[in-house]
Request: fold
Amino acid sequence: MRRTAAVLPLICIFSFSRIDLLAQMKIGYISINELLNSMPEFKKADTTLAVFRNRLEEQFDAIQKEYGEQQGILNSRDTIKYSKVQLDVKRQNLADMLTIIQNYNQQASQQQDQKRQEILAPVQKKADDAIQAVAKENGYVYILEKETLHVFPSSEDVLPLVKKKLGIK
Reply:
């Protein structure tokens, strides 16, 4: 009984000091998407990605057009002027083009993802570095992504501080 009476005050002291420690932790949140969309580097990268995507679409359209033309030749009455070997070669070329068309979307998607990573990596690093600097300068122990939170206090949004750090209005 004496032991319990002696331990109980110690437990209370440790519990209250733990609550005090948690109260001193500063936690903020930020919308990474909003930050990235406000960065000029991101806008430039987005434009570069759009140009890349358009080039891929133009290549796909050219392949489809060529396929349509080759298919039209094989379906026309003019096939009489070709030998059996020539027709077999044309049919094989058409089958190869169909395979290319079927695989193009997957390959283009992979190319797009690689290009996106390549272009956005420096922009994301700059944003992460700014968030780290703001956290350190303002005493934040944690900065969470706003997009993953359901409830957050409006006073702890660090987006304005990070934008200021990056010189973004």
Notes: The CA atoms of residues 65 and 71 lie 10 Å apart. The longest helix spans residues 84-138. The chain has a mean pLDDT of 85.
